[in-house]
Amino acid sequence: MLRLIGNLVRPYRRSLGVVLAAMVLETLMGLAAPWPLKVVLDNVVGGRRLPQWMSGFFGAAWGGAGKQQIALFAGIGALAIAAIGAVASYIDSYISETVSQNVAHDLRMRTYHHLQRLSLSYYDKHRAGASLSTLTSDIDTIQNFASSGTLGILIDILAVFGMFVLMFWLNWQFALLAAAVAPLLLWLVSRHKKTLKSATRAVRSNESEMVAVEMHGLESQRVVEAFGAQELEEARLNRVSQATVQSALRARKIKALLSPAMSIAVAASTGFILWRGAGSVVAGAMTAGGLTVFLSYMARFFKPVQDLAKMTNAVAQVAVAVERVQTILATDDVIPERPNARPANFPRGEIALENVGFQYIDGARVLADVSLRIQPGQFVGIVGPTGSGKSTIASLIPRFYDPSQGAITIDGVDIREFQLQGLRQHFGFVLQDTMLFRGTVAENIAYGRPSALEREIVEAAQLANAHEFIRQMPEGYQTMVGDRGMTLSGGQRQRIGIARALIRNSPALILDEPTAALDSEAEERVMEGLMRLMQGRTVIMIAHHLSTLETADQIFVLKNGVIAEQGTHQRLLLLDGVYAGLHKAQTTRAVQAAG
Ligand SMILES: Nc1ncnc2c1ncn2[C@@H]1O[C@H](COP(=O)(O)OP(=O)(O)O)[C@@H](O)[C@H]1O
Ligand SMILES: [Mg+2]
After folding, report:
1. How many C-alpha atoms does 454 have within 13 Å on its Cβ side?
2. Ligand 1 close to Cβ of residue 561 (< 6 A)
3. CA angle 418, 419, 425 (to 5 degrees)
4. Can you give the pLDDT at residue 381?
5. What is the Å distance from ligand 1's center to 582 Cα?
6. What's the gap in Å between 558 CA and the centre of ligand 2?
7. Can you name the CATH fold of 2-330?
8. Which of 314, 342, 524, 580 is the most buried (most CB within 10 A)?
9. Which helix (DSSP H) or strand (DSSP E) does residue 585 occupy?
């Protein structure tokens, strides 16, 4: 944990040096602040003589050490002390905010960078809302602490020490008395540190659960309203929200106890010194000014100690926040790339699965032993009942997951040997539903290749049968779509997806039920675009409607985790097995629907 913090702070060590210097200056000015009052009380009002060095100074520079001059000097001194303190405080607060903002930025980027590269299996196991909560709340906590906390502790300790020396000089018995209370307070604080930290951890985990529930609920608003499930969703939030309240109160209970306990200890010792101090002044052992300074230090002496106590809470919070960020950073659930991975260029591009087995969750085998070979330029279909693992195969080929047994090869080389980015560049994807990002239609089409020219974008849209409807949109290719943009129909989204794949222009295509969610009219238009996309490429098409595979060179039928049958459409029908059964079911349904 300290290493992470050290790493983050290192680039800003010079700024931190400036902040530290400003803080020291602030502290010194804080220590000096009550002294003009002492001078006035003792040497102007009280009529005591100035110490030798001061009267010498007045004689030379001030033209005399009369009471008026001393009072004026004290006034100017008070102003000067405040002014220097103010400048130091400005520098301190501005620069430390600069540092903390930058540290938060670095940490945010580092965490997001890591999240961007985690394997899909991480996202199968973790909720987006929880990661979001870490990216926002936890990093905010660290930022707030960095701006106010870290060096503050140092300064507090410095101030306590400085004050103690001065107090000791003013009256050592009282100073020792005051100092005796401090360890008591620190002991009180340290006793609660552990409980406070675990309570804080509970609060944060509940809070992030809350974000996850809210985010999931709001994202699914359409379904929620369709099913009238508002109350169910509210109940869900109510549960985690209540838990958050409970854990926050538990944390506060511990914290709330500290402050009053301290105030009482402080008041007791102040009271004592007020009583005994007055006696000392009357007896002449101490000046009135000295007692005033002493008492004003007393009030401040315990402030850093109290701050340290409050800091315990901040430290607990920041420790938990760092812990949570680090949990993400330490997740090594990335698809590994060999250090000396080969650049991914495939002269032929023959894809093969060799005895591939796979499971998402231990013990729940999805693929048992799948072997298949796809020649370059071939159009290959994969069919099978729902849940038979078709999409899983489509995820294994570009290494969204790695098989748990067997291997996938391209041109005879295990794909784990290649650079990941290049391997994925080899494939274009059109999935069951095309996800649009917030941006213009043109940007969405160019998503896979941001450098695409406008001409190329229009050309791709034309080939994908999308140009016509895009032209009719309010601002054509510049219409905003996606998150809070214009909503497109499923068929329109798919055609944008095809244009996107055309722009990417990769040698191989993975099509996962691209028309499954469409009605037959939309399907026809999408298929036209797909056919143009498929030309001259190796195509793996997972198909729901078997009619789309009539022209396939080879069809693999997946069942119970293995390839049960393979061949062309015609041959598989003759075989009269699984495929023929699926086909029969579909045609009778189509006839019934037509009749
Ligand atoms: N991310 C995942 N985590 C756990 N199980 C999964 C995941 N994705 C799919 N599965 C399971 O794997 C099996 C095959 O899924 P899939 O490949 O999507 O089937 P198909 O595309 O043939 O309908 C199903 O039983 C499904 O529940
Ligand atoms: Mg599927």
Report:
1. 4
2. no
3. 105
4. 96
5. 20
6. 12
7. ABC transporter transmembrane region fold (1.20.1560)
8. 314
9. helix 578-594
Q: What is the pLDDT of residue 183?
A: 75
Query: What's the confidence (pLDDT) of residue 62?
Result: 62
Query: 82: Cβ below 6 Å to ligand 1?
Result: no
CA dist., res. 589 & res. 584, Å (int): 8
How far apart, in whole angstroms, are the C-alpha atoms of residue 33 and residue 27?
10
Domain ranges of the chain: 2-330, 344-426+540-595
Between the CA of 133 and the centroid of ligand 1 the distance, in Å, is: 28
Nearest atom, ligand 1, residue 121 CA: 1
CB 304 less than 6 A from any atom of ligand 1: no
408 φ, ψ to 5°?
A: -115, 135
Indicate which residue's Cα is closest to atom 9 of ligand 1.
392
Residue 457 CB burial class (10 angstroms; 0-12, 13-18, ≥19): buried
Say what the pLDDT of residue 84 is.
Answer: 95
HEC readout, 135-167: HHHHHHHHHHHHHHCHHHHHHHHHHHHHHHHHH
The answer as to CATH 3.40.50.300 being correct for domain 344-426+540-595 is yes
Check residue 454 and give its pLDDT.
Answer: 93
Binding site membership of 363 for ligand 1 (Cβ less than 6 Å): no
- Residue ranges of the chain whose pLDDT lies below 50: none
| Closest ligand by atom to 361 CA | 1
Can 2-330 and 344-426+540-595 be said to share one CATH topology? no
Crossing angle (nearest 10°) for helices 490-504 and 520-534:
0
- Biggest distance spanned by C-alpha atoms of the chain: 122
pLDDT at 270: 85
Distant-in-sequence, close-in-space partners of 134: CB < 8 Å, separation ≥ 6: 111, 208, 324, 325, 328
Q: What is the DSSP letter of 342?
A: B
